Structures are given as C-alpha cells and as structure tokens.
Amino acid sequence: MSQQKMIEVNDLVKIYHSKRRTGLFRSQKNEVEALRGVSFFVNQGEIFGLLGPNGAGKTTLIKILTTLLLPTSGTAKVNEFTLDQDKQVKASIGAMLMGERGLYWKLTGRENLEYFGALYHVPKKVRRERIDNLIDLLELEKIADRTVETYSSGQKMKMVFARALINNAPILMLDEPTNTLDVKEARRLRKIVKEHNESENKTIIYCTHQMYEAEELCHRVAIIDHGRIIALDDPEELKDGLEQSDILSIEGTIPEEARFAVNSLPGVTSANILVKRSNNGSTEEKPYLSVVCEDSRQILPDLISTLNIKGAIIRNIDKQETTLEDVFVNITGRSLMDDTRQSETSN
Ligand SMILES: Nc1ncnc2c1ncn2[C@@H]1O[C@H](COP(=O)(O)OP(=O)(O)OP(=O)(O)O)[C@@H](O)[C@H]1O
Ligand SMILES: [Mg+2]
C-alpha cells in the first residue's frame, strides 16, 4: 500500500450556532460543539472507519471534508487540495451523504445517474457505460427506469451509493451507507466497498455506529465520541489494548440491581447491559450483561451467586471475543448504541 496521504485533517473544530425556541416569540442563542479538535490522516488505498454513536460528529466531519460546511477552525487537505479549493476537492470525492435526499425523486434512477454524471463532466459515452455497469453491479435493473419516489428506502440507498461512484473519484466518503438496507443487502454493499477498495485502490472513509462493520471493513478505525477522537488504530491493535481483561457475556433476565451488584464485585472492572447483534449482520438484538474483569475463572462463583441473590435468571454465560464495542465501553463507560447528541448549551 502506497503511503501517500489522501486526506489530512488538522485540529478541526465545528461549533454550530443555532436558536432554541423558549416561547412563542422568544428564542435563545445556542452553541453545539460538534467537533472539538479532530486530527488524523488517511493513506491512499485505505478504508478508514469513523466509528461513533449518534451525535458523535461523524456527519459534521464528512460535510466539512466535502466542502458542504465550513469549519469554525482548523484545516484539512483532500487529495492534496485545501478546503478552499472546493472545485478540486469536490472532483476528488464520491460522497454518499444525507441518505435518500441526495436524489431527485421525480427523476428515474437512471436519469439521476445521468444528471450527476454530467454534473461531474463525465463524458457521455463513458457515462452511459458506467451507469450500465453500476446498475448491473448493484442489481438495480428492475427499478432503474422508475422514478425514485416509487423506491423503497433500501432501493434509494443503493441508488445513492451508485451516485457516489458515478464520477469514479479516487476518494469515497460513505456516511452510514447500510443504514436502511436489510441484512443481506448490507453485506453485499460492504463486499462491493471492499472490492472497490482492493481492485481500484480507492481511499475510503466509512462512517458507522455498527462496530462489526468497522471491524469487518476498515484498515484503521478512529473511534469518535462527543466531537473528539478517543482512539485510533487498526481494529486488532485497538482490541489487543484490552487483552489483559476477560469479558463475560451473560444472557438472561438481569435486573438493574443485579447489574449494580456485579459492578461492585472485587475483580470486576465494569458491568454494563449491552445489545448483541451477531457478526453475520442478523437484525436480531439481544440484551446481555457484559462483565469486564481481571480473571473470569476467579470471579465466576461470586458472580453467579451475586446474580442469583439479586434475582437474575441466567440462561447462558460465555467468555467473549473482544470487540470494538468493548473498546468503546472501556474508554467511555457507555455503549456505542447510546445517543450522545449534545443538549445545547445556551450562551
Ligand atoms: N445544523 C446543526 N445545528 C445545530 N447542531 C447541529 C447541527 N447539525 C448537527 N448538530 C449537532 O452536532 C452534533 C454532531 O452531529 P452529527 O450529525 O455530526 O453526528 P453523527 O456522528 O453524524 O450522528 P449520527 O450517528 O446520528 O448520524 C450533535 O450534537 C448534533 O445535534
Ligand atoms: Mg451522521
């Protein structure tokens, strides 16, 4: 992999100024610090993950890098162009942002691709060929000639993805691209992203709040929380950082009182109720008690008796493989699925 830096971000800060309505004719000025000094770089040919819960600042960062939004302070370079060279920056990026809103609903999918291809100055012949290939690749034949307003959310999402590929740009920025896709289609889209990266050496920024997506796809992952990068490395290294701990996953009915009691046991670092989604992307969500401890064998008897005394019904106990979710929980004490949208601070 060549080490040319395709994206360089230095100390980006974004403060949103908005008004909060406090009465029928009254409002208050508010500030939200969406990015609080974010720095990183992305090498050519890398899939770089931005992993963080709702409200972490992922979309804000992508909007700045695609020149849709001005930062409050800080600088960035995209394909060696600074953000004020917005034409060149835009030409360097295929972006999938704002989900379904990136399409004209009264046009057909094919017409949308035609339109955006022309906007990016893709020559007519190349454009036609590319559109046919994309429709084929994403299995959009059946819907390509229908107006977008008749599409399901998943179909719109796939068409927005096709749109991001229309200018064959060296950099792709994908903001939660699998959001409304079903399990099978989400997996297929990730596969296409991976193939695109490998065969065409594309540089990709992939935003998600699903840790299994980041683990499966990304060469390096920045974990972002409350507008700050709190960890950045390749997924294996991030997980190795937790290796000194054991993680037990306990399924069953666990009252809050039982979780609290386990949390206070000697040898237990943390006990949190998390939601399990299988790595194969199944939509089934199961709550479980995740116990991070120094030595699982040593605490097991105490753990089981405490859970029993506090009225828990245990169905299954497993020693877990470390995931990026555990890395996040360990640093923040919260789950990735939590919503961290800032309550606005008035000034
Ligand atoms: N236009 C805006 N005006 C005021 N606050 C905003 C605006 N856009 C975003 N925010 C706030 O900035 C913070 C970061 O939002 P952002 O959309 O970047 O997060 P995100 O990581 O993309 O979240 P999600 O996973 O929900 O898409 C949040 O607290 C959000 O409420
Ligand atoms: Mg977002």
Question: What topology emerges from the helices and strands here?
Answer:
Elements: E1 5-21, E2 27-43, E3 47-51, H1 58-65, E4 73-78, E5 81-82, H2 86-92, E6 93-96, H3 109-119, H4 124-137, H5 153-165, E7 171-175, H6 183-200, E8 203-208, H7 211-217, E9 220-225, E10 228-233, H8 235-240, E11 246-253, H9 256-263, E12 268-276, E13 286-293, H10 296-309, E14 313-319, H11 324-332, E15 345-346
Parallel strand pairs: 3-8, 3-9, 6-7, 7-8
Antiparallel strand pairs: 1-2, 1-4, 2-15, 4-5, 9-10, 11-13, 11-14, 12-13
CATH class of the largest domain: Alpha Beta
Q: What strand order characterises the main sheet?
A: 6-7-8-3-9-10
Principal-axes shape call: globular
Strand content: 25-35%
Count of DSSP-assigned helices: 11
Number of domains: 2
In CATH, the architecture of the largest domain is 3-Layer(aba) Sandwich
In angstroms, what is the radius of gyration?
Answer: 23 Å
The total of beta strands comes to: 15
Instruction: Report the helical percentage.
Output: 25-40%
Overall pLDDT? 89
Structural class: alpha/beta
Terminal CA distance reads 48 Å
| CATH fold label of the largest domain | Rossmann fold
CATH homologous superfamily identity of the largest domain: P-loop containing nucleotide triphosphate hydrolases
